[in-house]
């Protein structure tokens, strides 16, 4: 933790100085230097565990004969109300005054709001590639910072505003486009940038249907430019890292983008490299996956061509996006083979690295009914680790009841692979990540646990909900409301209940609509038995949900998306 050693103080004039986070040991030094008052602008709990609370600091300050005031300002939240309150403190507290926050920037901005503006335009060489700033507005930023000293007017580090935004969204998938649209619906004046390298946007929930011959592949993709919300700026580049202490996103092309608030939603990475030989045989030798846009049609081709032999369907260790998708591929394939009267000639096996068929117990019995109907064999604790496409052999690591792992080779004629999945490397290796590599958030508010101007949603966040588009649809409301509250210096008030949904396509024409929240609590949207496969749910899956996706979720229209959780 940074502490305010006297050499790091910024003495802006004889009556005012700022610094980064102070420790208890700094207070006697501040008193000995002649200061009479301390203002704390850093919210409690914003930094690491060693950050002393304002109550503790106040006791130490009063013991040293100092006045102490607590005026917390979240990063990105230096608004008019806070500036006025700060100026009022300067009028009432004994001078000289010492103020601090995480780095000193918020305290400087609050003080600068009451000083005359610097009229001399900044020199070009003082402008950085991105604004390293914690709050305020473009008007307060458009100056250069002068060295400290008696009588010097404090002014603000300059920015190129092409590289500095109110909000930066990392990821242009379902969560990224959806949250941007919803924020702009609420507050159109926000300057929001979306960092996304791809020029295409995909409706991935329909890829299983494409692989089952029930949906047109072309209807699952649109140009990224067509879905970027009006009013947002698209930065077509890959994110490479985060510098949260400086409010910067690093890009792979060397640029840095500055933010007041950050939303992390880059999705989850398909870790094909964890299966030896798979990348050399995908799309041929009977090896396919509905988890890739270009391969879903190949799945349907293999299903139609297979008349006899062995079909393997795999599921890797969690977490994965749409945990029901691996078995949905099996159900739709079996339904087709059953209708073609060839199912009894095909040996179907579902190999899953998990120990259960589905994570919510209420849905296991109806799913087992379909497993039995299709005469599919289940292989639990069986993880695919190698594929030899030329020999048509799949190798699995199988764990027994004693935890012993053995390798078993299985021949196949068709192999549908669900790849292992992981957080993107630039997130996993960043200060934002939890131990699993995902963006560490409070699962109820979706606010980062250590950097309070950062939120996350979708597949990349650490919340233990099902990683589905339906979850992102609900999370959008949570993040939009809580981020704007934080922007005003308020506590988050909208609570996420962990909602996720998995429409389990158990046959062509019927779906079991599994909707649930944290702890597997059932959260059905309709007054119907959710464990019963229905044609109505199929219509929702094939017709309504895609329409809602393109015309509501990505447009900031929150139909059927409002949260029921309020703190």
From TrEMBL:
It comes from the Bacteria. GO terms for biological process: sulfide oxidation, using sulfide:quinone oxidoreductase. The keyword DNA-binding does not apply. Pfam families: BLH_phosphatase, Pyr_redox_2. Residues 165-283 form the FAD/NAD(P)-binding domain. Gene3D superfamilies: FAD/NAD(P)-binding domain, Protein tyrosine phosphatase superfamily. Keywords: FAD, Flavoprotein, Oxidoreductase, Quinone, Transit peptide. Residues 12-114 form the Beta-lactamase hydrolase-like protein phosphatase-like domain. Its cofactor is FAD. GO terms for molecular function: FAD binding; hydrolase activity; quinone binding; sulfide:quinone oxidoreductase activity. PANTHER family: SULFIDE:QUINONE OXIDOREDUCTASE, SULFIDE:QUINONE OXIDOREDUCTASE, MITOCHONDRIAL. This is Uncharacterized protein. It comes from Nitrosomonas mobilis.
């Amino acid at each position: 933790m940074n502490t305010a050693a006297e050499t790091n103080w910024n003495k802006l004039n004889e009556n005012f100085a700022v610094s980064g986070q102070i420790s208890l040991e700094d207070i006697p030094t501040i008193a000995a230097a002649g200061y009479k008052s301390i203002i704390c602008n850093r919210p409690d709990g914003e930094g690491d565990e060693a950050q002393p609370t304002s109550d503790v600091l106040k006791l130490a300050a009063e013991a040293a004969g100092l006045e102490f005031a607590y005026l917390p300002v979240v990063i990105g939240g230096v608004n008019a109300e806070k500036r006025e309150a700060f100026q009022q403190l300067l009028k009432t507290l004994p001078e000289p005054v010492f103020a601090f926050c995480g780095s000193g920037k918020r305290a400087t901005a609050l003080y600068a709001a009451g000083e005359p503006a610097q009229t001399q335009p900044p020199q070009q060489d003082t402008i950085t590639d991105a604004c390293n700033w914690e709050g305020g507005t473009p008007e307060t930023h458009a100056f250069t910072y002068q060295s400290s000293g008696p009588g010097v007017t404090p002014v603000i580090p300059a920015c190129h505003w092409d590289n500095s935004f109110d909000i930066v969204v990392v990821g242009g998938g379902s969560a990224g486009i959806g949250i941007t649209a919803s924020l702009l619906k609420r507050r159109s004046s926000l300057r929001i940038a979306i960092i996304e390298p791809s020029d295409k946007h995909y409706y991935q929930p329909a890829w299983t249907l494409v692989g089952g011959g029930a949906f047109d592949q072309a209807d699952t993709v649109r140009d990224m430019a067509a879905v970027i919300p009006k009013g947002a700026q698209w930065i077509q580049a890959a994110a490479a890292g985060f510098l949260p202490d400086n409010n910067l996103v690093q890009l792979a092309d060397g640029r840095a983008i500055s933010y007041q608030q950050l939303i992390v939603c880059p999705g989850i990475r398909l870790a094909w490299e964890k299966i030896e030989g798979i990348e050399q045989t995908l799309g041929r030798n009977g090896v396919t996956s509905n988890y890739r846009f270009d391969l879903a049609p190949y799945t349907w081709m293999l299903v139609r061509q297979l008349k006899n032999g062995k079909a393997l369907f795999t599921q890797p260790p969690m977490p994965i996006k749409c945990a029901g998708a691996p078995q949905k591929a099996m159900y739709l394939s079996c339904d087709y083979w059953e209708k073609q009267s060839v199912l009894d000639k095909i040996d179907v096996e579902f190999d899953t690295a998990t120990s259960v068929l589905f994570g919510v117990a209420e849905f296991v019995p109806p799913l087992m009914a379909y497993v039995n109907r299709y005469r599919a064999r289940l292989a639990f604790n069986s993880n695919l680790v190698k594929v030899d496409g030329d020999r048509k052999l799949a190798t699995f690591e199988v764990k027994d009841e004693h935890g012993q792992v053995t390798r078993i080779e299985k021949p196949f004629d068709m192999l549908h692979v669900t790849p292992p999945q992981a957080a993107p490397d630039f997130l996993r290796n960043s200060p934002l990540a939890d131990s699993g590599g995902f963006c560490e958030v409070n699962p109820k508010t979706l606010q980062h646990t250590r950097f309070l101007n950062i939120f996350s949603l979708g597949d990349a966040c650490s919340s233990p909900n099902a990683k589905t588009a339906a979850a992102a649809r609900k999370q959008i409301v949570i993040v939009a409301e809580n981020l704007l509250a934080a922007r005003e210096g308020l506590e988050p008030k909208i609570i996420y209940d962990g909602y996720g949904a998995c429409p389990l396509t158990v046959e062509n024409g019927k779906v079991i609509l599994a909707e649930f929240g944290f702890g597997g609590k059932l959260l059905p949207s309709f007054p119907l038995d959710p464990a019963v496969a229905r044609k109505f749910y199929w219509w929702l899956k094939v017709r309504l949900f895609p329409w809602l996706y393109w015309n509501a979720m990505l447009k900031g229209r929150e139909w059927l998306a409002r949260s029921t959780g309020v703190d």
